[in-house]
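Reviewer 2 asked us to include a model.

Predict the structure of this chain.
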Amino acid sequence: MIAGLRGTIARNLPQPVVQTVFDLFHGRTQLQASFRSSTARFLARAELAGMRGPTDPVISGGSVLMTRPVERFSAVEAIRANRELAQQAADRASIEYRVEQPNPNRPGSLVIAPGESAELFQALKNVSVGRPVYVKLGHSAPKLISELNQFDVAQLTVFEPQSADGLVLAGSDLGCEIIAKPERASYSSVTEMLEPVDVVYTWVDGGDPEWQARKVAALSRMHLGGLNEYSANDERYRSHDELRYSLRSLDYFAPWINHVYLVTAGQVPEWLDTSNQRVTVVDHREIFPEGALPTFNSHAIESRLHHIAGLSEHFLYLNDDVFFGRQVKPELFFEGSGLTRFFLSEQGVDGEPPNLADLPVDSAAKQNRAMIENRFGRTVRFKFKHAAHPERVSTLHQLELDFPEKHAETSQSQFRSPSDISIPSSLAHYYGYMIGAAVPGDLRYRYCDIGEASAQAKLLRLLRDRDADVFCLNEIGGASIDLAAQDQLVQQFLNAYFPVPSSFELGE
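Predicted model (structure tokens):
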């Protein structure tokens, strides 16, 4: 009842008023943040006295954590820095070690011989002088290494926390584990995903005048009576700079991603650092057959993703309005055996045949259902969450071979049509399940249509809780919030959730 009342108030008050009340209630005003920072510095005054260089005490989990403030952040770089810190200490102490890190973008372990822990610990203290370096033992709270006496343990995690705007971005989960054990073969768990996992984004700059002219020209040649009103509406192509922040979410929370492919219509975001060796821009011309372009149909573009040169067998497909909301592991999306996971929605697929009155996502779901029924004699009843979609290139190729005509029809369709199929976001999951390549999964998920009256309340709760593995900020059309207010709302939220640039962005 109280939650419902809060929602009603949030939907009816002006956005600035709701924002102010939220900030005040949750301690996010500038005055409260300043007071919290002053309190943290007062509580940590003794620790601060021994620090060299910028150090920002942050109240986290009810205790003060000394952190290194950063103006840019990449979890991959934080992992590397923590590993190099441990290696530097071992080298200084002339301790032999081996690095166990099956995925170079995931936290690894420094393995030493039994009996050398105490010596390495002392070396770590020496190389960490003046720095906010912590060690974590088991499930206990992290402790500043400078405050600990020498001890000999078989396992610990060493890390230097990083923060921005009072938010801890790098903690013990990105630390380097130090393990003392006898020399013997090490094996990864059978449930651990060891194969490289790429990410594929589809993106368009809907504000590009040249692209808009091509779209208008293509529409002029279409029989518009054959299109749903949401097949080519402006909202489908409008940008709130989501891609920038989606890549931040990846760099913050999914460092294990191997490579990022950005599929575009010959466009490149002006802020994207294309010299970053972890990202490749893919032009539509590289994956479409001759005569199929230009296309303004996301279903068509999605149908060609498995033709990207160099793409790993396992990858995640993301729209730019999908974000990682907290640290996630590859096993959330893939079994250790390589099987993909899929995430069913509670929204059903109605029993009617596809027609022009359907939203394009609904007509495609019905087409997908018909194909599964014809091929396997089974039916489907639910759609999928608008999340990160785990894929296998081999499954997508097999699907194209099994349904060549329908596949080609969708890839040749310039705008979303009732005859389209939606492949990586839906059909491939059901098809993969039926051929033994996919299994159901579960994840913590939030969805928000930014044009709805309830959007601000949803975003503020998400910002408060930060408990979603993946969330989506979608824009369907027919908004009850005007465009300027939508843009302001989304920008405020994304800037607060992902406060500093990632390694994918050009420096100033």
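Residues 26 and 233 are 38 Å apart (CA to CA). The chain has a mean pLDDT of 88. We have added this to the supplementary material.
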